[in-house]
Amino acid sequence: METASGGSGAWFDRSRTVAGPGFSRWMVPPAALCVHLCIGQAYAFSVFNLPMTKLIGIHQSAPGDWKLTQLGWIFSLAIFFLGVSSAVFGRWVEEGGPRKAMFTAACCWAGGFLISAFGVSIHNLWLIYLGYGVIGGIALGIGYISPVSTLIKWFPDRPGMATGMAIMGFGGGAFIAAPLSVWLMRKFTTASHIGVMETFVVLGIVYFIFMIVGSIIVRVPPAGWMPEGYVPPRQNKLISKNDVYVYDALKTPQFWLIWWVLCLNVTAGIGVLGQASAMSQEMFPGVITPVAAAGFVGLMSLFNMGGRFCWATVSDYIGRKNTYFVFMVLGFVLYCTVPHAGAIGSVALFVVCFLIIISMYGGGFSTVPAYLRDMFGTRYVGAIHGLLLTAWSAAGIFGPVIVNYLRQYNLAHGVPKAQAYNNTMYIMAGLLVIGFICNLLVKAVHEKYHMKPEADEPALDVAGEAAARA
Amino acid sequence: MSNNQNGTTALHLVLAWGFVGIPLVLGVLQTLINAMKLFQ
Q1: What percent of chain A has pLDDT over 90?
Q2: In A394-419, which positions are buried (b, 16+ CB within 10 angstroms) versus exposed (e)?
């Protein structure tokens, strides 16, 4: 747990986080999980929606109470600002180091909850938009990318597994947040008051402590550090030994091809993730009950989280490009199989198809940082990853829109409910064909984009200097 | 897999992994229990 001595900057400066002799790299994944498990709460924000529609009426919505449509904007704003902040602050996160980024994310995340709590207490929705939506969204973006490049540098032998562990935490954060939030609200709710405000305050404090612990234990490796016995792979054109500057990466076709690969993979998954409950009940009326559908959604969440770790780990062995080929080909087959499962009334086949699809949705998120490392090197991978997350924001619009509007269109044209999703499934399969082609076109980055030694930015060299002083 | 362990002890690792692992496992178990309703 030693830091390099001689660091002259503030406690959270990059130079103060260089690992000393004897530091185990296995301390870094829990540090990353401290942040990702907290910001993963965003997926569980919906548990507050219904209680927040009854803050005045208590037992039922009263005039002046917020509507669900108004509350839906809170989550949408947060996800929008996740994409924006990860793109805008990516370079700052990369150069400032993980501790500064995690500390900033902790302040924004806790601050967002506290501002929202104040908004609830005076019943001002704009304060919640500002607190959770804007400031919390910025925390999501900075927190999401903060440990990525650090993990990749600590685990050059298994970058997929390392980032998969952290990004798995983002998927798993909701598992902790949902029951915790419900329990806290129950504790603070009385006959004349719903305990949303107090729950926000407690969550803000707990998450702040958790994230600060992560920022305390995180370390960056000294310059040139390699795991014992690690031999870098030779002669692999798709694993670059050169770095690409963050804004030069935007000029490469590889960045935009991977952007589309991620966007299409996420579009396909996110569209069905949000509609899984309704879809399962409408495709199997009378067979899948609302309670069973809720269980199905829970199972999908588990596969979403597990897929993040498993597929990213698999990518270390079969390669990033091949992993995305598996997502596209297997996804195509599974999406085409779903209508058949509905036609023959096979719930088991339907469930298996969707569980694998959703595992690949999660796997798409967790494998992409290592894919970017392979293409653009480790130096600015966190910042480049931040820019790529705009694909997530775009997919967050495309996916639900395709599923919802196609369903409405089909129903309006007399298609039975049980078959209303068939066209959607075929369109999703078609999107994956485009994704397959984009992935196929990904080649090694041209050497004209590689950073020259003299062009290296001094900001990142403090790590090496501090290590040398240690 | 690990580098020199002199600075980081096994206790550090257990505490760090327990700090994040215990809440995560509890949350996963809770979700798994709810998910079992699919098969009832």
Answers
A1: 61
A2: bbbebbbebbeebbeebeeeebeeee
